[in-house]
């Protein structure tokens, strides 16, 4: 399968390149300057030249706090840019897998969100990603799968896990928010799941395979829980570790408001696509082992 993916350096893109090659697929990563989501003409030219069997829309503006002051750019990339990718997929007659986010919800429910729950982003990043979902479904909804992921970490790029490990090098204690809940999810697991969904879309025209799906690791945690697990896994490998000081969201104000509840119910994608991710703790151990392969 020939897969064109938007972006070159993001966690999901890098993971998809690795996992796609391992599965025997050809993954073509397209990013700036040849593909710029803020320039629809470049999107069309790059994707058409790639001649893919399926397109994965993974590139995005992901600076959650900075988006509050750069909302025009966030909307151009995450909203109009995603729509431009979908329009090309439609013109080429190929399926599209679009990666979205838990930030499309306001986080006020007392249970994991299902796909049919009302959206209500609390900041510009989430609102721009929701605009992207709408643009994708409007342009190519009959042959697209929108995958909402959350709390992504990996051996690649910048993420919460790597920040915690860096801080632990010279700190004995790290303050971490304990009143936000979500599903920590390895980008490597996301990549494997994207490959399965993409394969299903290429092989089968069943409308049930299209639409919006939640796709995260099993199990839930607060950021503080996640940090404690990171340090415990790191310590087992002889890596940096620290104590976690549990704080509230109010103790750590940020320009963008984070959802208190980012948990996603992934029953639908398990039923329809056969995607069932392992517990996040298992995945975390595997990622830590890649970063710190030699234990004391």
From TrEMBL:
SUPFAM superfamilies: NAD(P)-binding Rossmann-fold domains. CDD domains: dTDP_HR_like_SDR_e. Binds 1 Mg(2+) ion per monomer. Its EC number is 1.1.1.133. Keywords: NADP, Oxidoreductase. GO terms for molecular function: dTDP-4-dehydrorhamnose reductase activity. Catalyzes the reduction of dTDP-6-deoxy-L-lyxo-4-hexulose to yield dTDP-L-rhamnose. This is dTDP-4-dehydrorhamnose reductase. It comes from Sphingobium indicum F2.
């Amino acid at each position: 399968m020939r897969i064109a993916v938007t972006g070159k350096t993001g966690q999901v893109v890098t993971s998809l390149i690795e996992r796609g090659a391992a599965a025997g697929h050809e993954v073509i990563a397209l990013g700036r300057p040849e593909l710029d989501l803020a320039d629809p003409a470049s999107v069309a030219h790059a994707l058409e030249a790639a001649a893919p069997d399926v397109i994965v829309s993974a590139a995005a503006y992901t600076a959650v706090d900075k988006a509050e002051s750069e909302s025009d750019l966030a909307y151009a990339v995450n909203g109009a840019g995603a729509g431009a990718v979908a329009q090309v997929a439609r013109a080429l007659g190929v399926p599209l897998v679009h990666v979205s986010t838990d930030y499309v919800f306001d986080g006020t429910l007392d249970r994991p969100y299902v796909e049919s729950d009302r959206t209500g982003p609390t900041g510009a990043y989430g609102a721009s990603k929701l605009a992207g979902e709408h643009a994708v479904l409007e342009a190519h909804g009959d042959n697209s799968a929108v995958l909402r992921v959350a709390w992504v970490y990996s051996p690649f790029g910048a993420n919460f896990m790597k920040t915690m490990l860096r801080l632990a090098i010279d700190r004995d204690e790290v303050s971490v928010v304990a009143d936000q809940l979500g599903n920590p999810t390895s980008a490597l697991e996301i990549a494997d799941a994207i490959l399965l969904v993409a394969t299903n879309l290429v092989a089968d025209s069943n409308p049930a395979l299209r639409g919006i799906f939640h796709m995260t690791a099993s199990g839930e945690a607060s950021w503080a829980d996640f940090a404690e697990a990171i340090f415990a896994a790191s310590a087992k490998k002889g890596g940096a570790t620290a104590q976690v000081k549990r704080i509230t969201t109010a103790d750590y104000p940020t320009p963008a408001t984070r959802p208190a509840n980012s948990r996603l119910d992934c029953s639908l994608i398990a039923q329809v696509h056969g995607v069932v991710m392992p517990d996040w703790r298992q995945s975390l151990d595997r990622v830590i082992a890649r970063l710190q392969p030699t234990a004391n």
